[in-house]
Write a structure and sequence with these properties.
heterodimer; A: alpha/beta; Rossmann fold; Arc Repressor Mutant, subunit A; 2 domains; 10 helices; about 55% helix; globular; B: alpha+beta; Heat Shock Protein 90; 3 domains; two-stranded antiparallel sheet; 12 helices; 7 strands; DNA-binding NarL/FixJ family response regulator (chain A); DNA-binding (chain A); phosphoprotein (chain A)
């Protein structure tokens, strides 16, 4: 699987390259600035791009803008955005086109190599990988309103959180150490309580959850 | 059309009458007031060498200042002439010696003393003239109407009305004609003469440095506030780093050392420590992240004020609508001040207002960045010492910004902040 990597800090870029190579990814390019990233994404047509939000020369959100632009040119281009901080605002922009294949994670998540690599694979496959922190912010805000979310059991909330991060039922079952059947039952309950249509497609499922959390007040 | 003209004339006549009355009142107070102040000041200052002056001078000069300030107020109210008052502040509870010489060392004091003689002469005349110009013609009309007889009969010789000697009805009519001319002049000049009085007052009493001095005072104060705030901020950051991230990274280092030693002897224990070290480093990172957000929020750096406030609103537990109309970005310090001000006001609204909806409006007009935060809560917010809003006001003061709160009991609350700045 071919990866384009954009990160301006040498140490981190080097670490990411080694980490991804160790997990059998092919690094098509490892760049350090916005324009280089834009060129690499246009020429190399990678399977997935791993991009830092803040890149030279502007040191603002150049990475994110590059990624969004590349996705407009090539819809569905899988992009995993890494950041020192995560904001719902950016998460929304990434999810806005509804075509999936996006991820938005704190750089810290790299510490758990397995989880990080899993996220890259998920995004490359067209799924989503939203940072737990973004999801928790959304849930906290929603819980404040006290409406349908309050009707979820603690276990269901846990499942909802993992679902919103972009995990499949199998992955959630593995994480919570229960059977996949139990998770299926939980998700059915959650969908019923939140008034969402059940969908088999992992990506659509996540978008539905996020859309609900966003607007279903 | 006719009505308008009539009203115009009516208000002009009324303005003339008011100006004459005010002039008369001013003249009546000016002369005794200025003479008294001037004499007392001279005497008091002359008495300084024998010590008595040390006690009396501050009192007298304070009186002179009050007199001058009162005239400044009148000039603003009656003539629309603004004369800034720019006395140096005296230290509280200073001894008579410092008070006396502090006041004497103030150029504004000497300006006052120079103004008093002018006020009792030219000032008096310019104040009295409007009244004379209006009331003297009245006498002329009275003479023309027949009142000339007692005047002309007087033994003191010819009675003069202006330059007209009044002897019989004919000359009395001449006096009446002169009165008419005078009244005609009064129509044009009473208001202007009173205005001239105030302008004269400003020319002598006003200091072109007044506004500058005021500006310097405000700047000194806000600079002190800014220095205090940033010093406190630096201490907080140092403490947070020292107790938080720094300590955790030291712990990681120690753990790594221990792991090195244990690697061969006790791999299981080493693995456990690796997990612990990783956890510490994650915690150190999240602490650093929080710290950075407190110093300069990343979204602010990346996207500017509008999106930073939008991102902030997304984290609030209350539904918040953000409306941004900013054609460019302000300078970083201004953006930062505005962001933290809005943030603090929003926090207040969420904590205290009981609102279930908040609106934020950001726009830039006439060289001012204006941020308005309104909510539908229960109101009653005030700017009082030590409150969050007072802190916001101080923060904005550094940038010549102002804060206005409208929050009647029962709500709604609207907080408006304005900072002069240019966008790029």
């Amino acid at each position: 699987m071919r990866v384009v990597l954009a990160e301006d800090l040498f140490l981190l870029r080097d670490g990411l390259v080694r980490l991804l190579q160790a997990h059998d990814f092919e690094i098509a390019a490892a760049v350090e600035s916005g324009p280089e990233l834009a060129a690499a994404l246009a020429e190399l047509e990678p399977d997935v791009a791993v991009v830092d939000v803040r890149l030279p020369p502007t040191h603002t959100d150049e990475g994110l803008q590059c990624a969004l632009q590349a996705r407009r040119r090539r819809p569905g281009l899988p992009v995993l955005v890494l950041s020192q901080h995560v904001e719902q605002l950016y998460a929304r922009e990434l999810l806005a086109d509804g075509s999936g294949g996006v991820g938005y994670l704190l750089k810290d998540r790299v510490f758990d190599a397995e989880q990080f690599v899993d996220a890259v694979r998920r995004v490359a496959a067209g799924g989503t990988a939203m940072d737990p922190q973004v999801i928790q912010q959304l849930l906290a805000r929603q819980a404040g309103d006290g409406r349908p979310l309050a009707r979820l059991t603690p276990r269901e909330r846990e499942v909802l959180e993992l679902m919103a991060q972009g995990r499949s039922n199998a992955a959630i079952a593995g994480k919570l150490v229960v059977t996949e059947r139990a998770i299926a039952k939980h998700t059915a309950n959650i969908f019923a309580k939140l008034g969402l249509e059940v969908s088999d497609d992992d990506n659509r499922r996540v978008l539905a959850v996020l859309a609900y959390l966003d607007h279903g007040r | 059309m006719t009505n308008d003209t009539k009203n115009g004339r009516g208000s002009r006549a009324r303005g003339m009458g008011v100006a004459a009355l005010r002039g008369l009142a001013l003249a009546l107070v000016t002369l005794p007031g200025a003479v008294l102040c001037f004499v007392l000041s001279l005497v008091s200052i002359a008495l300084i060498p024998i010590g008595v002056g040390l006690v009396t001078t501050p009192w007298v000069l304070t009186g002179v200042r009050a007199f001058a300030d009162w005239r400044r107020a009148l000039a603003a109210e009656w003539g629309g002439v603004r004369i800034p008052s720019a006395y140096r502040p005296l230290p509280r509870g200073a001894n008579p010696w410092t008070r006396t010489f502090g006041m004497l060392g103030d150029p504004a004091t000497w300006r006052d003393l120079r103004w008093l003689p002018v006020d009792m002469t030219a000032g008096f005349v310019t104040a009295l003239l409007p009244a004379v110009l209006l009331y003297y013609p009245l006498q002329g009309f009275a003479i023309a109407a027949g009142l000339w007889q007692p005047f002309a009969d007087s033994a003191a010789g010819t009675y003069w009305y202006g330059f007209v000697p009044v002897r019989d009805q004919t000359s009395a009519l001449g006096a009446g004609a002169l009165a008419l001319v005078l009244l005609f002049l009064a129509h044009f000049y009473t208001a202007r003469l009173l205005d001239a009085h105030f302008r004269l007052t400003r020319a002598v009493l006003g200091s072109n440095q007044g506004e500058l001095a005021e500006r310097v005072r405000v700047l000194t104060e806000t600079r002190r506030d800014a220095v205090d705030t940033s010093a406190a901020e630096l201490r907080r950051i140092e403490r947070d780093l020292h107790d938080g991230a720094q300590a955790r990274l030291v712990a990681v280092g120690m753990d790594l050392g221990t792991i090195e030693a244990l690697l061969d002897k006790d791999p299981a224990k080493a693995r456990e420590l690796i997990g612990q070290a990783r956890k510490s480093s994650v915690e150190a990172l999240s602490e650093l992240r929080e710290l950075v957000r407190g110093i300069h929020p990343p979204v602010l750096a990346e996207r500017g004020l509008g999106d930073a406030v939008r991102a902030l609103a997304l984290r609030l537990p209350v539904v918040t609508e953000v409306n941004v109309d900013l054609p460019g970005r302000a300078e970083a310090p201004v953006e930062s001040a505005a962001y933290f001000a809005v943030s603090e006001v929003l926090t207040n609204a969420v904590k205290h207002s009981g609102a279930d909806r908040i609106w934020v409006d950001l726009h830039h007009t006439d060289g001012h960045l204006r941020a308005t935060v309104s909510d539908n809560g229960k109101g009653g917010a005030v700017i009082e010492a030590g409150s969050g809003l007072a802190g916001v006001e101080r923060r904005l003061g550094t940038f010549d910004g102002v804060l206005a709160v409208s929050s009647p009991a029962g709500g709604p609350t609207m907080v408006t902040m304005e900072i002069p700045c240019a966008l790029s």
